[in-house]
Write a structure and sequence with these properties.
Blueprint lengths: L1 H17 L7 E6 L7 H16 L4 E6 L7 H10 L4 E2 L26 H9 L1 H11 L3 E11 L1 E4 L13 E4 L3 H9 L3 E4 L5 H7 L4 E4 L1 H7 L7 E3 L5 E9 H5 L3 H36 L3 E3 L3 H11 L1 H10 L1 H11 L4
Parallel strand pairs: 1-2, 1-3, 6-7, 6-8, 9-11
Antiparallel strand pairs: 3-10, 4-10, 5-8, 5-9
This protein binds (2S)-2-hydroxybutanedioic acid.
């Protein structure tokens, strides 16, 4: 009986995915893990608005924010299975897809500012990384920005020694795992939706994220001290299931491409200001203390994290590091 139920459910799923195109309007489920009031949240809603407008309502975009549909790992699986059509995970979460090369973007102090990041992703390295996705049945549509990570705990993190023994939540990248280990901390991967509670109950002591994510997830309410270190960058890749995307009528895909290009310009143009405003809100809340590193302290962090660069070669490979080095005019 159980087998029969499973078989019927599977047949129904196949029928449902096959009939998605015949449906009117075409439904695109866009799932993500952050709040609406963040650069990614606003970008997803802008894409919805433009995609529905440009296709004259032939496409309906259903946006599911805040892990309401899927959590980090599940959403990638769901995309591969075709249960969701569009995601925008941070590129730190791409290793389970078999594309560790994306983690090169998590190297500490890699990008000078948002403009340099944006330019780099529009160039050869961004295209090269998207090409890596093709073999996995995934198509990369755009890179979105969410600025730079701060790091927090219930004690001031000013010198590398302050990280000793600290349990830090990380989102998935082995590069982040490595730079926190270089500082003496004990990193732990955890889904974004679980971080607030883990901080509140002491399952972890610390986390890193951008101001907009701290504010909207209230991380600052359960962390006494935040260092505005901006030590690494948080970026997203908007991705779709290739089979679904290539199966769309060509004229619809053209309109959706246009909507994505416009939504990308919009998202990347607001990211820096959104994070500036969020940091201001955090400061005003009085619920945490913000710390800023002096140049000498920043140099201590950079020195402590330097071994990550050497280690990264074995993880992400030399090719992507060479592409980044050329793009950013640095030596790696
Ligand atoms: C995280 O898990 O910390 C971030 O990737 C969440 C996000 O998507 O901004």
């Amino acid at each position: 009986m159980r087998k029969l139920i499973v078989a019927v459910a599977m047949a129904a799923a196949v029928l449902a995915s096959g009939s998605a195109m015949a449906q009117s309007p075409i439904i695109i489920k866009f799932s993500h893990v952050v709040a609406n009031d963040t650069p990614k949240g606003k970008g997803a809603l802008k894409f919805k608005e433009l995609a529905e407008k440009y296709t004259n309502g032939k496409v309906k975009i259903e946006v599911y924010p805040n892990s309401t549909l899927y959590k980090d790992k599940e959403e990638i699986e769901a995309l591969q299975l075709g249960s969701v059509q569009m995601l925008a995970p941070s590129t730190a979460k791409f290793a389970p897809l078999g594309v560790k090369e994306f983690e090169a973007l998590d190297l500490p102090w890699l990008f000078k500012d948002d403009a340099q990041y944006d330019a780099a992703m529009k160039g050869p390295v961004g295209k090269w990384l998207f090409k890596k996705l093709e073999a996995k049945g995934i198509t990369g549509l755009a890179y979105w920005d969410n600025g730079f990570h701060m790091v927090s705990a219930n004690r001031p993190l000013i010198h590398p020694a302050d990280f000793q023994g600290l349990k830090v939540r990380i989102s998935g990248s082995k590069i982040a795992d490595r730079y926190f280990r270089d500082m003496g901390a004990i990193p732990q991967i955890m889904a974004f939706s679980e971080v607030y509670q883990a901080l509140q109950t002491g399952v972890v002591d610390s986390c890193e994220n951008t101001p907009s994510n701290y504010l909207t997830q209230k991380f600052h309410e359960v962390q006494k001290d935040i260092t505005v270190s901006y030590h690494a960058h948080l970026q997203y890749a908007v991705i779709v299931n290739s089979k679904f995307w290539n199966g769309l009528p060509a004229d619809i895909r053209t309109q959706l491409d246009k909507a994505m290009a416009d939504a990308t310009d919009y998202t990347n143009s607001i990211a820096a200001q959104e994070n500036k405003d969020a940091l201001e809100e955090i400061k005003k809340s009085g619920k945490t203390t913000l710390h800023y590193l002096t140049d000498a302290q920043k140099a201590e962090w950079q020195k402590a994290m330097q071994p990550t660069y050497k280690w990264a070669k074995g993880r992400v490979g030399q090719e992507v590091l060479d592409l980044l080095a050329k793009e950013l005019h640095v030596q790696m």
